[in-house]
Amino acid sequence: MKPKIILLIVLFAIQLAIPGYMIFEQNQILTEGTAYKFKTRPIDPYDPFRGRYVTLAFDANQDVIPVVEGADIESEQWVYALLDIDDEGYAVLQGLTDVEPDSGQDYLYLETYYRSYDGGFQVKLPFNRYYASEESAPKIESAVWRRQRDEVEDVYAVIRVLNGKGTIEELMVNDMPIHEYIMQPQE
Amino acid sequence: MEPKQLTKKQKHWLQYESDEWVEQGIINSQQQSQILGRYSTSHIESFYSSWSSLLLISLGAILIGGGIVLLIAHNWESFGKGTRTVLSILPLLLAQALTWYSVRYKPQLTGLREASGILLFFAVAASIALISQTYHIYGDLERFLVTWLLLGIPTLYLVESAGVLMLVCALILWLCGLEREPYWLYYLSLVPYLYSLFKRQRLALFHWALWFIVIGTTISIIYSVAWNSPLDHWMIYITLALCGFYYSLGKWLFGFKEHGFWTNPLCTAGVLGILFISLLLTWEDFYRYSHLDTDGKWGFNDYLILSVFAISIVSIVGFLIHKFKSLQIHQWLLIGSVLLAGLGMAGFHLGLSELVYIVLVNVYVLVASVILMSQGIQQHRLMLLNGGLLWFSFLVLFRFFDSDIPFVLKGVVFIFIGSAFIGVNIWYNKKLKQQAEQQEAGA
């Protein structure tokens, strides 16, 4: 067999392996990962290849996360953010460390953003895109924001977390999946 | 032996001439048919029809590929995760099957190879896009484009499709304009392919790719240092040196024989850049802020661009030494504009006054543009004349509207230069007349 044909087979295998690995990894996180609820607000932008999505502006992005004692962390550094749950049942980032946590402790591997005056950091949660159809995406944004003016809505994303990686399972409004929520008649 | 290619007109001439040779007994009719058999017009005749059909096939494949991506981007959320996962792999498998068939069994069918290569290129994007969409995988457009590009470049080498080459070039160009990262380095991965195109004399494709490379690299370098970089005040000087490098490289690679506007992208882009930037330097705002921010945050990209600047200067010097005797005065003047960059950088740090620098640049552009025009007239080269005229006209236009120079001074300088032009013209005409009279007397 000619080298070119062998290389072509290798290329095909790589081209298939990349999406294949993406599918495998996402399914693994979704099935084996622990579910956390992250408070968020959706905004509707556009991607030329992957279509419409809602950007999830997480409350956790606004918070200053303290650094775990002994950790040496700089801005724009990839770190481990330890996960915990607050009294209301929502996920909180408890602290940042540069050492991979032991098993049993859930964490997210993410990049630090700004250093705060008190030594903590702001971070950006990476799973910030919820893809939806051309019809649904603007509806999600407008429905949630219209309702918010009048009453306090409970908007959160259920994120499955495994080995530092998180993936979106569902976007929820008042404990209802977003697609069911937008199907409801709006008053 | 394969027949040599002739145009129809050339073949017709040869046929006519050889008929006469036979009549005159120089050759016999058998020899005539042997000679005529050495030349063919088939390639030339079939070239345009095959070229246009290839173009149509490629455009068709691009549209179909783009259409698949758009269909996927619509987001068929009602299909559910399982169906969408299968659907995401399906276009990739089909495109791979078509490419396999084309490369393995029908390598001689260029149209099929083009179509399958382009479809495979798009199928990779469609597949990654649909999986990202189905599982809400994070990652911005930049990461998506880089993954696509890395899978696209090997496709180019294995399928050897002109369409894929153009798409890869365009994708790198997109990345160059999207982020302040040295994405132009990806063009280096195309060098072996472009070299093979050049060797095989597939020059149209080669020129197109070179245009992409020149534009992409320039955009990327300007964008990377234009602001918020320790090199931002040197951006204009670095770009000027880069244009000088393009020009020298263009002359070095393609020789001093004149090429058209489109067929030597390096020279064309180099000249345009030199003219434009030297004109910018005639304004005061750039020299005033020529300091290098040594205390700023230096990243890989900054060091890389500084290296590009150094390599450009060294290459220009090497070119000048190597081609010292072949260079004409207008080429010296164009490449010499890079000295304005050196003068700006060094002059600022050595305390050269702003007024002196600005005057020097203005005088340089004025003298150089006039020499370019006169060279154009003497050598009957319209492109050179127009280039000089354009350079000169913009300098005049800029100074006319320059609010920093007092009106009286501007007026005096304009009248002086205008008089000088008319004076030179009268003197030149007289000289021509004298020469003509002398020639008549001599005859």
Automatic annotation (TrEMBL), chain A:
Which is a Pfam family this sequence falls into? GDYXXLXY
- InterPro entries tied to this protein: GDYXXLXY
Q: What is the protein name stated in its UniProt record?
A: GDYXXLXY domain-containing protein
Species in which this protein is naturally found: Kangiella aquimarina
From TrEMBL, chain B:
Keywords for this entry?
Membrane, Transmembrane, Transmembrane helix
Q: Which residues cross the membrane?
A: 51-73, 85-103, 115-132, 144-175, 205-228, 234-254, 261-283, 303-320, 332-349, 355-373, 382-401, 407-428
Q: Spell out the protein name for this chain.
A: DUF2157 domain-containing protein
What are the DUF2157 domain coordinates in residue numbering?
Answer: 19-163
Give a Pfam family name.
Answer: DUF2157
